[in-house]
Structure formats: C-alpha cells, structure tokens
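Wed. Picked up where I left off yesterday with CCA tRNA nucleotidyltransferase. The coffee machine is broken again, so keeping this brief.
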Amino acid sequence: MWDQIQADANLISGARAVLTRLHDAGFQAYLVGGCVRDALLSKPIHDVDIATSALPAEVTSIFERTIPTGMQHGTVTVMVDQYPFEVTTFRQESGYEHFRRPKEVSFIHDLEGDLLRRDFTFNAMAMDIDGHLIDPYDGQNDLDKGIVRCVGDADARFQEDALRMIRCVRFAACYDFQVDPSTWAALRIHRTKLQYIAMERVRAEMDKMIDLSLYSAIRGMSLMQESRLLEFTKVMIHDQWNLEDHTLYQVVEQEQDRLEHWDKHADVAVRWGLLFYRSHTNPEQAQSIMQKLTFPNRKNTEIVELLQLHAYLHSIVIGNKEEDVKPSWVRGVLTFGKDAALRWLHMMEGDELFQSPHQQQASPIFTQLRKHGERWLSELHVLKISDLDIKGHDILKHQKKKAGPWLGELLQHLLYQVAMGQVDNDRHELLEEASQVINNE
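Structure written out below (tokens, as returned):
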C-alpha cells in the first residue's frame, strides 16, 4: 500500500523510519486512521498517525525528539526532521463523561482492540510496515460501497462521543457517501446528546465541510436538517437558520458539476454568504449564528459585510431606479469595502445556479451590477477616507471649527465625490468642496 500514499516523499520516509525504530526495539507499530483511509481513496495525505504496543515512556526513550502531547492518553509526538508523527499506545477507553471524553484509559497490547474504540469502519483500519492492510471491521468494503458505518455498536459509539454524529454527517457529505441505516437510526436516537458538545467542536466539523466545497456543505446541511441534529446544539441556532428550503438540496443534485466548477474559485466567506443567503438568513441572524458557533472575528466580519452589501443592493432593486445603479454601487463599495464587493459579484455568479427556469428573470439593476460592477470597482481610485489628500485636522484648521459628528459625515461626502469623479483628489479642491458644503448647511 505504500505506493498508494499520495504525500510528500519526506513525510512517507519519516513514517517508515518511525515504524522501523519501533519494530527494531521489539514493539508493534502501524499507520492508523485517516491516513490509511485517504490512501485507499487516493486522496492527498498531510499527516500520519501511528499506533503502537510501546508505552509512552518507551516511545520517548526510543526517539531523540519527542513532545509529550497527551501522555495520560498514551500520545507522544515524535519529530522526524520538521514532520510531526502522533504515536499513541494501543488503548481502550471507558466511562465516558458528558458524552465527549473517556473517564478511564487503559493501555493494551492488541491492535484490533485499539481499532474497536474508533468511530467509523473506514477509520478503523491500519497498515503495517510492509504495506499490508489490517481491516478487522470491513472498512475497505464500506469505502468501496460508499457507506458511513459505525465500528461495532453504533449506540455505544455515539454515546461515547456525541460529536461523532456531526462527524458522521461530515464524512457522508464530503465523500458523497450514504449513511448505513443502523448508524442513521442510532444517530436519530442519540441526537439530543449533541447538547453536551462545545459549539467550537461543532463549528470545526462544519468548517471542514464548507472548506472542501459548497456542495459538501449543502449536502451536510441537508443531512442535519433531515436528522434534526441542529435542534439539539448546546446553544440554540436552528431557530434563526432556515434550512427547510429544499431548493438548496435539489440544486446540489441537479447542478453538481456547475456548482463544483464555481466552487473552485470561491473563498470560504463567499460559500458561507451564499449558504446563508439561500437559506433566507439575514445579516443579523447570520452574525448571531456565527457568534454562537464561535467563528473567528475576521471570518464573521467578512461574511456579515458580504450579506449587508447584498441587503443594501437589494434595496436598490426594490427602489427600481436604474439611473442610481452606479452611484449606489459606489456607495456600497465605500461602505462595505472592496473585498465585500468582489465577493458579492462572485456570490451572484453562484446564485444563478439556484435560479429555477420558472422564476422571473433577474432584475435589470442586478444585471447591470453584474455586468459593470467589476469595471466600476477597478475605476475607483479611492476606497477609504485615508486615501483622500486631506485629513480631518486640515478641515478643522481651515474652517476654524471644533471636531464633532459633522466632520466624519463631511469626510464621507468628500470620499464619495472623489470616487464618483465629481471632485479631484487634490487638497485645495477638497478644502473648497468642504467650504461649500458647510456654507450650504
């Protein structure tokens, strides 16, 4: 199987070296988990986990460079050059607390027993130093058939760690697999236990879906909607997130090729933006959902600004004033930023895939924005107040006035006038325009 592993040659040679050192010291050692699964799926591998009969102290005595990552749980990180390898002693777990962590960990000498504690059959495979597959729970067969199946008793697996229910959905979505009926039935029985799982762990699984593609994210949301998983999160989000629009899921099936082509050029904020928009979630609701899911502030801001820009541009459509399209676009760019504008244009390309043939044609205003928006954006020579050839203190000194809210409003006015080409970005002309505005008040 070594020749099936798609990975950096130094990562592979490092993995071989770790297995060899452990074998030479008299211990069993195997590649396990995701790296074996992904090798069989011909997917790139970026990290390698190793299971061994050696105890943590024995691992640290064998290798020169180690990090005590989780000694109490049997895990030592072994460094080979710049590559880290997590080496974990064969173990069994018992007495799970709050459906997420084991109370007791006991070290064993049996690989098959170690593999039994894992979540799904395709994650419970191992590969020995000679490249032979060890597959006691028929994981390769499930991979070949495209099935997500728990190892052993699905009820037990989900009670051990309730996050496995979200992981089940994530694997089904990302690999385009079906969930085994007994695993699905157990998931529906135990879904209330998701309330014990930290929101950041739930979000991390969602991130993995949407990082891969919008297609996988929508398919994952479809499965979570069908199973009602999101009704039982630790912090309530389902009341703000309408995932019942089956148009989303129908498009995924009908337009998969076109959606995947669009997806290749979409960043994560655009994918989230389109997912929120198409699930009828407004900017305020989206922001609340992302805060509850512990999104990083920067990602939260990018997505909210995109949705706010869309809401602003949608208000132009309602106003139906085609002559106001460019001025309104410029105001939107100046308010929400160039990045939000570029993301909006890309989001609208993706949104076309969700248009039913029976729906009315896009508004002439949106058509103009999509046709000319990028060119209008490239013609803007100023995007923020700091781009102006004038500072607030210049105006205060020239007008002999005290600072106040009027100054920010005036600077925004000057920014817009320069962006629209009504005033040159020249200090003298800007001061003159400022005087006219103040005198006309």
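Quick read: Residues 385-439 form a domain with the Serum Albumin; Chain A, Domain 1 fold (CATH 1.10.246).
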